[in-house]
Write a structure and sequence with these properties.
Layout: E1 4-14, E2 18-27, E3 32-42, H1 44-58, E4 64-69, H2 72-87, H3 96-106, E5 110-115, H4 123-151, H5 187-190, E6 207-209, E7 234-236, E8 246-254, E9 265-274, E10 277-286, H6 297-300, H7 304-307, H8 313-324, E11 328-331, H9 334-347
Parallel strand pairs: 1-4, 4-5, 8-11
Antiparallel strand pairs: 1-2, 2-3, 6-11, 7-10, 8-9, 9-10
Length: 353
């Protein structure tokens, strides 16, 4: 009796056309497999199709396949429209090369196709989405490495340099005597909030996560003076005194993509806003994960050697938790970052954010 295999497939594109990635999360009766890849100049629909093709071709031909996709284009194309396209010899059909490959991959197979709403918290679809973005990240890293190899023969992956968060990255001129001027900065000038992030495949990925303890009426100034700060935690104080809801533009780097499989955080950075205006405050920390970074170094450029003298998470958890607590988190894929942060805080004896 043949086995039943469930596939979750997804594509992502940053620009459409632009850099893209595809992911296939495959669940068999005995194991799980995670596939991903990407292309430099592609479209979201082509990545959706490629994910389905690669996922199906990976599976044995005698297995029953249950395929889940959040692309109506793929689902209706393969189950409804393809017969008419073939009768018309693919005339006026976009992406005919990939539709022909998908059609060939499906021949002689028992496949049930299903649609699932994207970015709605469905575990399998979320995993496929993460894989698609990982594929795009890895492709981008490979392109950068290739370009660097041709223009700069010898460049260290990670150089010790001044923390960019300390150097007024948005050019706001946060001098003491000029601090009051920064309060007039608008959202459009800093490129945050209500705009589609440049690194997302679809607008839904531009996520924000409010803390359950967030107080919307007033932003409480974070007092870190009473905490035992590790010397390698870099914190800049507020340059302006403002009141209102507090937001943090946050990003993390990790040893891999799956906190469930033991991957760890190696870098956290956050910039503070109040009422969507920068205050000048930020936090930046490198963290020793006590495990090898592995292939993820190709994405973020942070090596095991660079991290060996950095603090452990439990050594910085108190300070970081206090800084993050109560703020609305703004991130490219906030669910990814928050899942990792909650895992790390729980390991260190804290509650989830």
């Amino acid at each position: 009796m043949s086995q039943t295999i469930t596939l979750y497939v997804d594509g992502a594109c940053r620009g459409n056309p632009g850099l893209g990635g595809w992911g296939a999360y495959i669940i068999t009766e005995t194991e799980e497999r995670k596939l991903c890849g990407g292309e430099d100049n592609t479209t979201n629909n082509r990545m959706e199709l490629t994910a389905a093709i690669e996922g199906i071709l990976f599976c044995p031909t005698d297995a029953k396949l249950v395929v889940w996709t959040d692309s109506t284009y793929v689902k209706r194309g393969i189950t409804e429209w393809i017969t008419g396209w073939k009768k018309k010899n693919w005339k006026d059909v976009k992406n005919p090369d990939l539709w022909k490959k998908l059609d060939a991959a499906c021949q002689g197979r028992d496949i049930d196709w299903h649609w699932v709403k994207g970015h709605a918290g469905h575990e399998g679809n979320e995993m496929a989405d993460q894989l698609a973005n990982l594929g795009a990240d890895q492709t981008q890293a490979q392109l950068r490495q290739s370009k660097t190899a041709t223009t700069e023969p010898s460049v260290d992956k990670k150089k010790v340099e001044p923390d960019w968060l300390l150097n007024d990255p948005f050019g706001l001129g946060f001098d003491d005597e000029e601090a009051d001027d920064s309060e007039d900065l608008t959202e459009s000038e800093i490129g945050v909030a209500e705009q589609e992030p440049s690194l997302v495949a679809e607008p839904e990925l531009a996520t924000t996560v409010p803390s359950i303890e967030q107080t919307p009426e007033v932003a409480v100034s974070v007092d870190l003076t009473q905490l035992k700060q590790h010397p390698q935690i870099v914190i800049t104080p507020r340059k302006v005194e403002v009141f209102g809801p507090r937001q943090l533009i946050l990003d993390t780097e990790t040893t891999g993509f799956y906190y469930q499989d033991g991957d760890r955080i190696i870098e956290v950075g956050a910039i503070e806003m109040v009422n969507r205006k920068l205050t000048g405050s930020s936090i930046h920390i490198y963290i020793n994960p006590k495990k090898a970074v592995g292939d993820s170094e190709n994405v973020h450029g942070i090596s095991d050697d660079f991290l060996k003298d950095k603090p452990l998470y439990q050594e910085i958890a108190d300070t970081l938790f206090t800084y993050l607590k109560g703020a609305e988190i703004i991130a490219h894929n906030a669910n990814f970052d928050m899942n990792f942060l909650d895992m790390e805080f729980k390991r260190a004896g804290f509650v989830a954010l």
